[in-house]
Structures are given as structure tokens and as C-alpha cells.
Amino acid sequence: MLTLICRHFLARSSYYYALTAIALLVMMPTFSFVPEGEHLEQIRQRDFITLHTRNTPTTYYEGRHGPTGFEYELMRRFADRLGVSLNIDASHHPESVLPAVREKGDLGAAALPLLTDTPGIHYTRPIINMQPLVVYRRGLNGITEPSDLVGLSLGTLSGAGTSKALRELQEDYPELSWRESHELEVAELLAQIEDGRFDAAVIFEHQFRINRLFFKNVEHGFPLGDPVSMAWAVPSGRGLGLLKAANRFLEDLQQTGALDQLVARYFGHDDYLEYVGTRTFLTHLDARLPRFTEDFKQAAENTGFDWKLLAAIGYQESHWDPEAVSPTGVRGLMMLTRPTAKEMDIENRRDPAQSIDGGSRYLRSIMDRLPSDITGDDRLFMAMAAYNVGLGHLYDARKIAEMRDGDPDSWADVREALPLLQQREWHSKTRHGYARGGEPVIYVRNIRRYYEMIEYVERSRQQFFQLEQTPVNADPLLMFELIPPLD
């Protein structure tokens, strides 16, 4: 599924790649008195490259293991290619990136639209295409086509590239108007749709795919206009060495398939959870999780896990219901079997604190029993899979992975092998036989997604909802420039 999403995301607009490639040729100067490699040589001499970007889920943010994000990952690899370190300025809004690149920076990577008329800037080859998308507040009916936007309170981000589609639409519907923010980010704009300050907005599809999980009252509308190309920006007038190096790097990523893999990793997992289930999760996040947060944190302190990961496992097991009981007698918030509870010295499986403590220590015991060659996230994901399907079946799947010339220490290869435990051809060759091997794959996948949502919501409550602290007498719309109807 991820591969299909990725191919669709990249390949559907090869036409626009051709157009933008032509535009790049037009933009290239035919001669320059500046040595071609001057800028690139300066970067190498100082041993770092400065990246101007935005602090958003689709560009750059601090994740579980440190800095992450789609464009951060690209830039990190590019810096490695150049043999320099990466210096990041993530304080920008889309409109402030290009001035910073022109005046003092080396490169801008902030979901920038490739434009052909930007003074002082050269753009790299296209990286991915970004489809403008109309989103709207749940409860507004019939938002299915461009004419439905007339008369709505409509917002977008200034300088992000989405205004182009609105201006083109305004030529057909002169009465259309909207507001453009010079300060906010996508999540804040979606929050304003939820609280009624806007009826709808135009953002990019991949941005909504990442953020929709946290705004359950914002609906997917319809694509608006043509896709625009995302590109990096470098300053002109300082030689073309950096631009050429970046283009070679991006071309290599595209040809080797590494770019497809990154797109799938960051933007291709929106269908992991059915959307209604996601809204239920967010409801439970507010209504149920606070009762058990301290228990999860205490268990995390005792076992060394991230408390949000333990909470994600608890949700996958029982939806944070301490009274949950399965048809087979597994019960409690962490759904412990009777033998597991006994092994972990748990007397009352329905006591949430005991259940969380027992489940967390049981996960740690599985982790500790795995072979030492399994490391990092591979070790964690296999431990979670064994929590679901049993350690014996996990070892069987590792054996199948090896029989298929895969790496038994790699979760990616074991994940492919686990569903084969449902096929006689394969489980007949294992020690423990048949298992519903597809379930632990979904189990781990869901927990990772629940974890991402819990982590993101915890981080976002302050970062993306600052508008709630706006003084009562202040007008939030002062952050927007009104784009009026055409005369």
C-alpha cells in the first residue's frame, strides 16, 4: 500500500516535472563572473551548511530520537554527501525563508513552491509535487466544487504556494475572497477551522494527511487547481556549484528509489487507521488517558520505555478500559493472560496500575530475551510483535525470513515473514506451527501510529494552539491579510 501511495504521489505529475525542468533552464544564467563553485567551496571550508526551514510535521521537528521530518532527512543526507555538518534555522514562516536565503543563508527547504520569478533565488529540480486541497469544517454540507467556496470564510498561508490556485479560481469567480496568514502554520489554520473562525482553507494534500489525525472536525474536500512542485532554494549570484550539487543529489535519490521510500515513510501511512477509529482515539485521549498517565509514567520509569509507547500499547490492547475482557479470558487494561499475570506477580489484572506495571515489565522481559544482534527499533518492534503473537512464533517468523534470504534481525524482513505463518507451506517448516501472523504486523503498525499521535498531541498542545492564549480583546484575524473580491 505504501509503495502504491508513494508512486501515486510522485508519478501522477511527471508532466509538471517536465514543465518545471523547462522553467529551470529558462532561469539558469548563461554566464556568470562569479566562480562556479565559490559558494560551495565556502561551505566546505567552514564545514557546515545552513538550512532555513519551518518547524512543522512535514518539514522539521524534534522527534523521539532527535531531529526528524521529510525535508530534514533530505538535507541531512545532502550534508553528508557534501561532507559537512548541518546548521538549522527552523524559526521561519514560508514568507521569511527566501529573504533569509538571499541575505545570509545557504539553502531553503521548507515545502517551498518552485516559482519562476523569484529575484535572487535559484531553485533545484523538483522534489515532489504538492496538490492544493480544500478542507472544511465538519457539518458544512456540499463543499464539493470550486463554486461552493464563494461566500465562505476561507483561509490559507501566505507564501506557501496555495494562493496561486485561489488566484486562478478568482478569475472565474471574481466574488471569491480569502485571508492569507503571514504568521501561522498549517496546524494552527486547521485549529481555526475547528473553532469556527474559518469555514474552510486551502493547504496541501500531504500536509492534511499528516495533520488530519489531530483535527477530527476538519473534512477532506477536493483538489483545487494543478499541483505545484516542491523545490529547494539557493541564493543566486554566488556561483552554481551548490545548485548543481543539490540537483545531482536529488536526481540520485529519485533514480535509486530512496526518495520514494522517504515519501512513503513520512506521508504514506495515513490509511493505517480508519478515520472514524482515529476520531474515537482522540476522544479517548481526552476522556480516558489522563486517568492512567501517571501509572504509565511510573511504569516507564521502572522499565526504561517511553510512557507514550506504553500508553499506545494500552490503547491497542483495551482502548484504556481496565474492565476489558476478551472471549479467551485475557483481561485488564494491558490484556494480560492469567499465566503472564502470574509470571509478573500481578494479583489483580483489573487493577489498572497493576496491569500497566505487569504489561510493561512483560514487554521488557521479552526485549531482554531477544538475541543481542537485534538492535534499535528492530528490537522494539519485534518485542511488541512477540507481546501479541508470542515469542515462539516471532522466532518462527525470523526463521522464515532467513529461509527467504532476508535478515532475521530486521523488522522489515520479519514483518514480511509473519503473515506466512498462516500458510501451511511455511508454518509446516517451523517449530510452533500456525499463527495468525498478520495480526502482529497490524498490531505493531497501529501502536506506532497511536504513539505518533500521542507524542504529536502532547507536543502540539503548546506549539500549535497558541491562539487559545490570544488576549480576549485581540482579533485573531489581524494575523491575516484579506484578499478581496475582484472589481
Automatic annotation (TrEMBL):
One GO MF term attached to the UniProt entry: peptidoglycan lytic transglycosylase activity
GO annotation (BP), single: cell wall organization
Keywords in alphabetical order: Cell outer membrane, Cell wall biogenesis/degradation, Lyase, Membrane, Signal, Transmembrane, Transmembrane helix
UniProt domain Solute-binding protein family 3/N-terminal: residue ranges: 48-270
Main subcellular localisation: membrane
Region (LT domain), start-end ranges: 271-487
Superkingdom to which the source organism belongs: Bacteria
Active site: E317
Cleaved signal peptide residues: none
Membrane topology type: Peripheral membrane protein
Listed GO CC annotations: cell outer membrane
PROSITE patterns found in the cross-reference section: TRANSGLYCOSYLASE (PS00922)
InterPro entries referenced in this protein's UniProt entry, alphabetically: Lysozyme-like_dom_sf (IPR023346), MltF (IPR023703), Solute-binding_3/MltF_N (IPR001638), Transglyc_AS (IPR000189), Transglycosylase_SLT_dom_1 (IPR008258)
Reactions accelerated catalytically: Exolytic cleavage of the (1->4)-beta-glycosidic linkage between N-acetylmuramic acid (MurNAc) and N-acetylglucosamine (GlcNAc) residues in peptidoglycan, from either the reducing or the non-reducing ends of the peptidoglycan chains, with concomitant formation of a 1,6-anhydrobond in the MurNAc residue
Transmembrane residue ranges: 15-34
Pfam family, one: SBP_bac_3
EC number, as in UniProt: 4.2.2.n1
Function: Murein-degrading enzyme that degrades murein glycan strands and insoluble, high-molecular weight murein sacculi, with the concomitant formation of a 1,6-anhydromuramoyl product. Lytic transglycosylases (LTs) play an integral role in the metabolism of the peptidoglycan (PG) sacculus. Their lytic action creates space within the PG sacculus to allow for its expansion as well as for the insertion of various structures such as secretion systems and flagella.
Family, similarity comment: In the C-terminal section; belongs to the transglycosylase Slt family. In the N-terminal section; belongs to the bacterial solute-binding protein 3 family.
Notes concerning its domains: The N-terminal domain does not have lytic activity and probably modulates enzymatic activity. The C-terminal domain is the catalytic active domain.
HAMAP family (UniProt xref): MltF
Name of the protein this chain belongs to: Membrane-bound lytic murein transglycosylase F
Organism field: Vreelandella subterranea
Gene field: mltF
